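Sequence, please.
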């Protein structure tokens, strides 16, 4: 088993660097969003990554770090992982089959198809797509690229933290949205307690909250406005011990707060974030997380695959 730690993330960063974007940060005044504290926020704009989300990091880490058979790769996805894997496969000349549930955003389905992957839509939730994907892998011999419970996936997502620390080395707190936990697991492995890591989940999909309460990954509700990116039913087994050690707190946010965060990001800085991408910001904008005076806070805006804004 590949170690999911700072050394592994550094090696993965060198491996995937030619294929990913170094996404920018944006320092914004809290007052622009009606927030009393802190004075400024740092937004990590990972929605500007290839294929519209952080998932490209883990996708390239898998395709470059593992042996891919001639039949290619397969993955289940709420949409973003599938789009990222399809993009990486297209760039590297690899066949890909992506299984997505019926709740997947039309924007994400169009992306997957545009990148040339074989797209299979079926089932009500991510878990249904995963079952179909695993059946196909067993029959075909394709390489499974798990959206969040694979060492290479976590190492790839951890490269976001390596970038962010170089860009904003003085952060006290970082807010990160959680679905299956690949992103926050990789970030936790990188920082290893050197900042306060706050997980943000929709109230309708409290996967990490339920797992921490139970002391192990368990099934949780899997609904809400961000169900196509933050509702996998349970967190991954690989990220869980990292979360136990290094996640300081889990904050649950309502769907209305996520919608309001999307609107605030658009009004304030013209960022078009999907619901899952805006969830971490929702914790601040709605007051679910209240920073202390002077607290230096970062927020990962992790995805932008949405049709929420009408540019007509």
């Amino acid at each position: 088993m590949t170690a999911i730690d700072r050394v592994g993330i550094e090696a993965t960063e060198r491996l995937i660097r030619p294929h990913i974007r170094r996404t920018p940060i944006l320092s914004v005044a809290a007052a622009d969003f009606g927030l009393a504290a802190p004075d400024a926020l740092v937004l990590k704009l990972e929605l500007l990554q290839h294929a519209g989300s952080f998932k490209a990091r883990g996708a390239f880490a898998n395709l470059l770090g593992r042996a891919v058979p001639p039949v290619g790769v397969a993955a289940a996805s709420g949409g973003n992982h599938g789009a990222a894997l399809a993009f990486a496969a297209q760039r590297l000349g690899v066949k890909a089959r992506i299984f997505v549930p019926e709740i997947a955003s039309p924007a994400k389905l169009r992306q997957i198809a545009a990148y040339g992957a074989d797209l299979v839509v079926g089932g009500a939730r991510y878990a249904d797509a995963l079952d179909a994907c695993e059946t196909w892998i067993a029959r075909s011999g394709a390489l499974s690229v798990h959206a969040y419970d694979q060492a290479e996936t976590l190492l790839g997502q951890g490269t976001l933290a390596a970038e962010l620390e170089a860009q904003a080395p003085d952060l006290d707190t970082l807010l990160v949205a959680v679905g299956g936990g690949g992103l926050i697991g990789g970030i936790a492995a990188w920082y290893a307690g050197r900042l306060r890591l706050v997980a943000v989940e929709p109230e309708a999909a409290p996967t990490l909250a339920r797992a921490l309460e139970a002391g192990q990954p368990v099934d949780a509700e899997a609904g809400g406005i961000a169900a196509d990116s933050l509702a996998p039913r349970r967190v991954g087994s690989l990220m869980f011990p990292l979360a136990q050690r290094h996640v300081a707190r889990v904050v649950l946010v309502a769907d209305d707060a996520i919608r309001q965060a999307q609107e605030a990001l658009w009004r304030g800085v013209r960022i078009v974030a999907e619901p899952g991408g805006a969830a971490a910001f929702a914790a601040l904008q709605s007051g679910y997380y209240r920073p202390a005076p002077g607290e230096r806070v970062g927020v990962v805006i992790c995805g932008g695959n949405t049709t929420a804004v009408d540019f007509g």
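Strands lie at 25-29, 40-45, 73-76, 96-100, 118-121, 143-144, 173-177, 196-202, 247-253, 297-301.
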